[in-house]
Amino acid sequence: MALTNAGTNSPDSQAKGAPAQPEERELDPGTGPHNGEGRTPDSSVSELVSQRPSTAEIYDRLTKMRHLLMTREFGLQEILTKIDILRSEFQYGHNYNPIEHVSSRVKSLDSIVDKARRKGIPFTAEDIGANLLDIAGIRLTCSFVSDTYTMRDLLLSQTDLTLLRERDYIADPKDNGYQSLHLVIEVPVFLAGGPEKVPVEIQLRTVAMDFWASLEHKIHYKDDTEVPRHLTDALKLAADMSAALDDSMERIHNEILELHKEAEAEAPSGGGTTRIHHPLSENPIPDGESRELLRAILDSFDRRPPQR
Ligand code: GTP
Ligand code: MG
User: Fold this and answer.
1) Range from 133-142, 200-209, 297-306 carrying the lowest mean pLDDT
2) What order do you get walking across the sheet with 194-206 strand by strand?
3) CA dihedral 108, 112, 118, 124 (to 10 degrees)
4) For ligand 1, what atom is nearest to the CA of residue 221?
5) Which backbone phi and psi does 187 adopt, to 5 degrees?
6) Which element (helix H / strand E) includes 50?
7) Residues lining ligand 1, judged by CB closer than 6 Å?
8) Is the pLDDT of residue 279 over 80?
């Protein structure tokens, strides 16, 4: 179709002197060789008229773009539900919650246009859909480093999810000190017209990593201003310190778990059992359990058919 290259009307392609596509002028009337430089006036006018996208074509593009954003929103909801279920299951079964908080967003249209321009991606739903894998994004802030990997493994073990890309900036931090585990996961969304696979970016990190990244982002991520060396060094040092903090918090956590285990092993059987925090151990019946529920369960034992 005639409109597929409108996105090449980026500052980059212009700067490199790449020929602007005629249709770009229609979608972005503020740029492009309007004066028809290098052409005879007649040919430029007739070209413009003949290659002008019809309203139907523009509408078609808009519809596809809306559909793309809609599916990204649905993909996001699918993964958020999965995370919510895992979180609740942890709380029910292990009395432990590895997730501190979850945030999510569908990239705004402005950011999509911006990134597509920056990366030279043509502005069609097909190209954007295939190349911008972080339109749907989730940030999962976990308590400990091991929790980020646990959550990763639990998500990836779900058979309907496919890992498209993984960048482990925890094992291999960026030069500036940035740490996080980035996954791009494909999830099917079931629409009236059939299933569609949607990429969702998930960033997993600890509270300390999140704290560092949020502030570093405010300070200079993607900012063109040159940051003096002593400040980038200071940021890197702060990242190292927050990694050390993560290490020691996890060590303390593990030692406390060990203490709980020892206490439980030493407790006289039957009475005074300590509830182990994590991972799941033999479950004593918690105090707050409903009497009615327990009574119904006890009754059901009495009514069980005899075991063969
Ligand atoms: P983007 O074009 O930003 O999406 O980067 P990318 O496609 O090369 O992917 P990458 O996995 O490296 O980074 C994706 C996202 O991680 C970014 O959009 C940020 O949210 C975050 N991120 C990556 N590097 C940094 C960093 O150095 N500092 C901070 N604060 N965030 C970062
Ligand atoms: Mg991104």
Assistant:
1) 297-306
2) 99-106, 136-142, 194-206, 181-191, 162-168
3) -160
4) 28
5) -125, 140
6) helix 41-51
7) 134, 167, 174, 176, 178, 182, 203, 213, 216-217, 221
8) no
